[in-house]
Amino acid sequence: MLTSVLRLLRIIFTVIRFRLDVFIPFALLPWYIRCTLGLVCSIGRKRASKNKGERLRLALESLGPIFVKFGQILSTRRDLLDDEIADELAKLQDKVPAFSGQVAQAIIERDLKAPVSELFAEFSVEPLASASIAQVHTATLHSGEDVIVKVIRPKIEKTIGKDIKLLYTLANLVANISEDGRRLRPVEVVTDYEYTILDELDLAKEAANTGLLQRNFVGSDLLYVPQIYWDYSHRNVMVMERIYGIPVADIPALNKANVNMKCLAERGVEIFFTQVFSHSFFHADMHPGNIFVDVSNPEKPKYIAIDCAIMGSLDDADKNYLARNLLAFFQRDYRLVAELHVESGWVPKGTPVHAFESAIRSVCEPMFAKPLKDISFGQVLIGLFQTARRFNMEVQPQLVLLEKTLLNIEGLGRQLYPDLDLWVTAKPFLEHWMREQMGPKRVMEEARKQAPQWAGQLPQIPNLIFTALSQMSHQDERIQAQTEAIDQLGKELKKSRKNLPFRLLGVMCLGAAWVFTDPASMEHLLTADLTSLGLFLAGLYLLVLKP
């Protein structure tokens, strides 16, 4: 708790130091927060010597990797930011202040257990680029291949650990004091983010992710993934093929190379949906610093992806619901969208579907028949959030990475080709995917997957058949025994029903004998008159002796 409080104090100090109060919408805050926060932010206030975009970038850099990641996401949303701020935040993609090259060399030698001179024919101590988690150096192997060497920042785990603890503190606070906060499931979201960011600190996992993504797109003309050199890769060091391409955010260079920007934007959308639905393994850190373009064929440009540390995956159920939801959106079938949300459990059971349908229509209908440049997903998300609040829809933590990636894709699409119609580009792909899920090809694929298991069970089939036949041979005997038992039970019930009047008469006789005889003692009963004695004997006979 103390660590979180100290970290929070540092964040507040950073806000004051870099005059980030200019980004706070004071007019929208309650008066008591407005006065308190305004007073705090005025402490030591001086005329800012830098523009607000630069101040924001420097503040995020000083706060560490989690805040840098946030700045990277914002940098792709030029529709939501001033150009001055967006240009500054774009520097967070690969121009974060580097750490010492000598320190990087020491980490390489420690992890790979050999001097740099033995590992590489050439090694550049000066970093080629530096980001929030790691930085890269250029090198040449003794076999002649040009490579890049990625090195994790020293002591980065400690900084991230403090931020994660603070996020958990804030998440629990939000979940405990606000109903809306509980619906957003902040603790689960932070837990998912913790797994993601910790995986990013392990370059061995990144190398494995890169290898899988490479296999998924082997032979593809859409995406190229560099080769990993496994003998030179470890937890804190990774060596991979050096690629040469134009950064996807360098629009002037792409135009100079006569790249077909419409095709490039459409291929980006196709790559994203292919990863999500066909491979169920998608690059979830697609900011411009991680994407390059091979312009050797300008009419059909090819993407190059690096930095596969953060990858996302959806299970079959989530993919199916997501695809059906998107198709329903494209077809403006808001009734189906509402029903799918209820069916999947994303909104509570019993939600009035017609009301939910109407609310979704009011948010989404204005989006259609517009190019991407005229659609603000930021405004759409705000509208959907308000709708979700009305109907108690919970955040799905497994979809958070996907939503983040969609924001990156949209921001990238705006830069490349603002007139791109995202719906027209994505709809045919989703329709084709849904047909494949329900067609004979899918059946054959499932049969092929299950074939090894079936083959392993083949030797057991004769025993299973023999057991089944043996059970069938004794089935008639069991049925006959059950029939006889049922018949006997019927006879007993019939007999019981036949004797029921006699039993009732016997009870009545005993009751009459009791009335006519003083029951103080048994001797009174034995000396009773003949009427009482006769009633007693008749009742005893009817209840006990008569079969």
TrEMBL record:
Pfam families referenced in this protein's UniProt entry, alphabetically: ABC1 (PF03109)
Domain ABC1 atypical kinase-like per the UniProt entry, residue ranges: 91-340
Family annotation (SUPFAM superfamilies): Protein kinase-like (PK-like)
CDD domains: UbiB (cd13972)
Active site per the UniProt annotation: D285
GO molecular function: ATP binding; protein kinase activity
Residues annotated to bind ATP: L128, A129, S130, A131, S132, I133, A134, Q135, V136, K150
EC number: 2.7.-.-
Transmembrane portions of the chain: 22-43, 500-517, 523-544
Coiled coil: none
Main localization, broad class: membrane
Keywords associated with the record: ATP-binding, Cell inner membrane, Cell membrane, Kinase, Membrane, Nucleotide-binding, Transferase, Transmembrane, Transmembrane helix, Ubiquinone, Ubiquinone biosynthesis
UniProt record, GO biological process: regulation of ubiquinone biosynthetic process; ubiquinone biosynthetic process
Subcellular location: Cell membrane
GO CC annotations, alphabetized: plasma membrane
Keyword Secreted carried by entry: no
Involved pathway(s): Cofactor biosynthesis; ubiquinone biosynthesis [regulation]
InterPro entries reported for this sequence: ABC1_dom, Kinase-like_dom_sf, UbiB, UbiB_bact, UbiB_kinase
Membrane topology qualifier: Multi-pass membrane protein
Its biological purpose: Is probably a protein kinase regulator of UbiI activity which is involved in aerobic coenzyme Q (ubiquinone) biosynthesis.
Family statement drawn from the similarity comment of this UniProt entry: Belongs to the ABC1 family. UbiB subfamily. Belongs to the protein kinase superfamily. ADCK protein kinase family.
Protein name: Probable protein kinase UbiB
Organism, as annotated: Marinomonas ushuaiensis DSM 15871
